[in-house]
């Protein structure tokens, strides 16, 4: 029986979390030094994004060795110490397994390039002439998804950067390698795993041009994903451990399959549909304000759909690939605190396991960079060129990047008001957001009215009220586009919750159902009791116990 429903996961991007040695680059010792902060927040697991040896073309998502620590992040001893110290505080570590591709600097790829047939079969190489790539598929980071290797007379597939070569999961030897890596980390005391873009591992038999799109329909949720996951979980000995799959452009039906307990695949999935409601025409690089109607429909569909068919959701607004939620769905000026707390409430009380991304609990905002040389991310730098080539002006391009770049969430964690926000004593690898003097952990941990204290309270509520972790969910007021409302009910403790979130900075009138007139307020972001008018970004959780 899985026991992850009342757990909360905290995501750490080690490069930007805390630098212990002044080289400007966060490290594992830096994480260990901040464990008391994380224990105080009350989280159960830490998911660390990759710290394995890597040329860092994609900040570690280009892994050159799956069984070691990159010296920039520290040593294996540092990791063992982190595991031990976290364990003392009741916190488990989850590692990020980037199994769809390796760095082209990985030994396997280097051997393949040197002509070793065994290792060529670890990747997706296709014969062909240099002037015609095998298909017209587009890389997720822009440009062709194929690269030609003249000395082999072959092309290799890279769905991401040219230095991230896709692995050939059809080859049983590749699958055995991956299971072995899981066993290695489990034996070292790792308690869970996040699997990067794991629904892209099953590639089609036939490689053909996509005349309707960028190729994703041929390799997303491929027919063997479930089979490979079952095999990986069994052979890796990780059944029952906390696992989360990152699912790119997936469907509800597939995620039900990946997370149903009876299938022994994953405990939960990330999907990104709710984070595309501000993509104009579905395009990441075209801006529009969030469509609240679409957001509400997606939450309802995924929450109720997963519930009905026994699946389990990972709940999140933020990660290292997304702009900061408070800047995107809330207000990072006038209603900064109110909107950050409303966003926390909206997802933490839903059915699923919540994830907090470093700094989200402080209401960290986008840094609002204004120059291209402030950016580090390979995707942002590629799209800067692509958007400029498409004829967008410099100012327009920079405005788009400021709102959509993955670097929005990768700026250093804001610990205090000292130089570089207390992240490093050296020069940070990426700039700190200007607002660190007012938005930082030191200012918030001792303030009972801070966003941090709100997060701490909402994390605790999950432990105290089984209806949050185990109850059913039903969405209300479908026609009131700007008001997200749902009811939680049906758990063993007989409690019921009504969660109301005003998604806007306008007041909203909402008549509560009669049964809730005498309910007690469990948490909210305005001091006094709820009235029939919800104020800007107001959220309130009402609570009753059924006889
Ligand atoms: O991301 C997968 C992914 O496709 C997106 O989140 C991607 O960054 C976005 O769609 C681009 O617009 C995962 C990791 O989280 C990301 O950091 C890696 O770059 C990527 O896989 C490749 O490993």
- CATH architectural name of the domain at 469-545: Sandwich
Which CATH class of the domain at 469-545 is shown? Mainly Beta
Q: Give the overall average pLDDT.
A: 97
Main sheet strand line-up: 11-10-9-3-2-1-13-12
Rg result: 23 Å
SS class: alpha/beta
Overall spatial form: globular
Q: Give every kind of bound small molecule, once each.
A: 1-O-alpha-D-glucopyranosyl-D-fructose
Low-pLDDT runs: none
What does this structure look like?
Among the domains are: 107-166, Oligo-1,6-glucosidase, Domain 2 (Oligo-1,6-glucosidase, domain 2); 469-545, Immunoglobulin-like, CATH 2.60.40. Helix content is 29%, strand content 16%. It contains 17 helices and 20 strands. The strands form five sheets. Strands 11-10-9-3-2-1-13-12 form an eight-stranded parallel beta sheet. Strands 14-15-16-20-18 form a five-stranded antiparallel beta sheet. A three-stranded antiparallel beta sheet has the order 5-7-6, with no helix packed on it. The longest helix is centred in the middle third of the chain and has 17 residues, at 292-308. It starts with 8 loop residues before the first strand and ends with a strand. The mean pLDDT is 97. The chain binds 1-O-alpha-D-glucopyranosyl-D-fructose (TEU). 1-O-alpha-D-glucopyranosyl-D-fructose binds next to loops.
Helix/strand layout:
Blueprint: E1 9-12, H1 28-33, H2 35-41, E2 45-48, H3 76-88, E3 92-97, E4 101-103, H4 107-113, H5 117-120, E5 125-127, E6 146-149, E7 154-157, E8 164-166, H6 172-187, E9 192-195, H7 216-219, H8 225-236, E10 242-246, H9 252-259, E11 268-270, H10 292-308, E12 314-315, H11 325-328, H12 336-348, E13 353-357, H13 378-389, H14 394-404, H15 441-445, H16 451-464, H17 466-470, E14 472-476, E15 483-489, E16 495-502, E17 508-509, E18 520-524, E19 533-534, E20 539-545
Parallel strand pairs: 1-2, 1-13, 2-3, 3-9, 9-10, 10-11, 12-13
Antiparallel strand pairs: 4-8, 5-7, 6-7, 14-15, 15-16, 16-20, 17-19, 18-20
Helix pairs in contact: 6-8, 9-10, 12-16, 13-14
The structure holds 1-O-alpha-D-glucopyranosyl-D-fructose.
1-O-alpha-D-glucopyranosyl-D-fructose is lined by residues 58, 61, 98, 140, 160, 196-197, 246, 248, 284, 320-321, 379.
